[in-house]
Amino acid sequence: MVTLGYNEQKDLEGALSYLKERGQAGEKIAVLGFSMGGATSLMVASHDDRIDAVIADSAFSNANLFLSEGLSYFTHLPSFPFNPLIIGIVKHVYGVPLEQLSPIDDLKTVKSKPVFLIHTKADLQIPYENSVQLYNSLKSNPNAKLWTPQKGDHMDAINEYTDEYMNNVSSFLKESLK
Predict the structure, then answer these.
(1) Residue 60, SS3?
(2) What is the pTM of this model?
(3) How many Å apart are CA 123 and CA 61, to the nearest integer?
(4) Is 122 exposed, middle or buried (0-12, 13-18, 19+ CB in 10 A)?
């Protein structure tokens, strides 16, 4: 069951523990997440010192806001009355506290950890403004970076700009993990 990062945070924390306990992690750890995985990575990186750098591609800034504004994209139903109804069901039936799933709030505590946000401006599923808002919440972090290429669907920067994507990610990791 997908929980928009609520339970997935525990998955990432468990993966970090697994790697560390078995000596499989390097000296430094960077995580890369796409969409919900990007949001999850940001939320965990905000409080877990085992993560030295994070890359989030096409992440949402706040789950409740994302669903309130964007659920119709996925359901093809009118926003009202369906979005509030579906959101209420998700909260009640699955016990997911959407208001707590807010990378933008979590990032306010990240003062120096390297963060690289990637988001295409043509993303219709999660508008790129989400990453702009995330970046703006990191203004006091000198190690925050934002790249918003023009074209490409959701999580598609890697396909539309393969060489540039790989070069940007590689440069970010080399600088962040030295």
Answers:
(1) coil
(2) 0.94
(3) 14
(4) middle
